[in-house]
Design brief:
40% helix
Length: 440
């Protein structure tokens, strides 16, 4: 089966080199204006959108009518370590791409991912554009503020796109990381260490707070017995002491600070609440090996065993209220699901995440913006997340209108990554091959 993957990847790569393509009678979805246009012709040449009239004799015409959106981004993704083998890495990348994700921000990188990033950029391997952090900054990898500064310099010079923050840092180490990163012009994003706290983070230039980390502690009033106690996993230990009335002010402060949030809400809803058996019956589980499914089941059992009855549901309720308030306050939300993690299958998880955003009060257009235009603005890359001439041709063709129902983002007829068109038949062939390998 590995030979089949290689053949398909090669065919995709060759097909995209210098290819001209025209989409016939597609409706362009304008996320910013919350509107769908009349049917138009859209041209692609050398990986960019061009005026279709400038292509006299296209190499390929896509005549499937539908709705064209910019490719989605997963801003808290994980790429397997290269030591686990090319097949697993390529399967993971294909799962993202097959679900309409054309950009991933890898939040636990390694030197091998720098090579992989280039292979994806050149078309040698088909998959999303990779933005990658280096190995994480945490209580084990950072021994002192000076060591933190050296680590920032080393990762910047190695060519990583951002620095990943993990728990275990203390204020002096965080300050050293932030100061050095800002001097060198590299983003630092991720968790908020308990000793650092939300206040210091909002006063910094951290790019994004991931998992809504750090907010739970600030929702516990100082006169409550739980104030200052062990927060546990994403502050789940503090649920009984959280005061929802404090949420609007935290949301206002976040918007004022200009720091983005990557909620990964779907991940926490998987392990904190809901019917576990129903989660394991999702169709996407067919792409997950039995051993991984068992590991996920054990992890959920262990987490839920430590959460008092009913507190998991309240935990999710509070997080949803926080997410809604951040959006209402005008804080930047970036789409991210933290796949592959507990019950979050690469690609599939992003669509669950989008549905949650709509459930908490975003319009479908606003939810789509978290994975398209918001990302382009956050990265200061105006040629991404758009459907105009001069934009990078990262595109998803949908059978249904996503502005009328966000679930239509799953009705994918084909995906284009930098001008390489992967149609539904080829995506299905790849997904079937991944499922077969997962069953072995």
């Amino acid at each position: 089966m590995r030979f089949l993957v290689a053949v398909l990847l090669l065919s995709f790569s060759v097909a995209g080199v210098g290819q001209t393509l025209v989409f016939e009678d597609v409706r362009l979805v304008d996320v910013d204006s919350n509107a769908v246009g009349d049917p138009v012709r859209l041209g692609v040449r050398n990986g960019f959108i061009v005026d279709a009239e400038s292509i006299a004799d296209p190499d390929l015409v896509v005549a499937d009518t539908g709705y064209l959106i910019p490719g989605l981004a997963e801003m808290h993704a994980h790429v397997p370590p290269m030591r686990l083998g090319d097949a697993l890495v390529q399967d993971t990348l294909m799962l993202y791409l097959a679900h309409g994700i054309t950009t991933i921000r890898g939040m636990l990188g390694e030197p091998g991912h720098l090579t992989l990033r280039q292979q994806l950029a050149s078309g040698e391997i088909i998959g999303p554009r990779l933005i990658t952090s280096g190995p994480s900054f945490n209580g084990n990898s950072v021994s002192s503020p000076d060591a933190a500064r050296q680590m920032v310099r080393a990762q910047t010079e190695a060519g990583y796109d951002l620095l990943k923050l993990h728990p275990g840092l203390w204020p002096e180490a965080f300050h050293a990381i932030a100061e050095t990163a800002e001097a060198l012009g590299i983003d630092y994003s991720g968790h908020i260490s308990t000793a650092v706290g939300l206040d210091r983070t909002l006063a910094s230039r951290q790019g994004s707070i991931d998992h809504l980390d750090g907010y739970g502690q600030k929702l516990v009033p100082e006169d409550h017995p739980l104030y200052g106690t062990d927060p546990g996993l994403f502050a789940v230990n503090l649920v009984e002491g959280m005061d929802k009335a404090l949420i609007p002010e935290l949301a206002r402060r976040t918007a004022e600070a200009g720091i983005a949030n990557v909620p990964t809400q779907s991940l926490l809803e998987n392990w904190a609440s809901g019917d576990v058996e129903a989660l394991f019956e999702r169709e996407a589980m067919r792409w997950v090996p039995a051993q991984t499914r068992e590991q996920w089941r054990n992890a959920i059992d262990n987490i839920r065993a430590r959460v008092p009855e009913g507190q998991g549901e309240r935990f999710i309720e509070i997080r949803r209220a926080l997410l809604a308030a951040l959006h209402e306050a005008g804080a930047t939300i970036l789409l991210g699901a933290d796949a592959p993690q507990i019950l979050n299958v690469p690609g599939d998880a992003i669509h669950h995440e989008l549905e949650i955003y709509v459930e908490v009060g975003m319009s479908p257009a606003e939810a789509l913006a978290t994975g398209t235009t918001n990302i382009a603005r956050y990265l200061d890359q105006p040629a991404h997340g758009c459907l105009e001439a001069g934009c990078v041709a990262d595109l998803v063709l949908l059978a249904g209108n996503p502005l009328s129902d966000i679930r239509n983002t799953r009705q994918i007829q084909g995906v284009m990554r930098a001008g390489q068109w992967v149609d539904r038949e080829r995506l299905d062939a790849e997904l079937d091959a991944i499922a077969e390998r997962a069953s072995q």
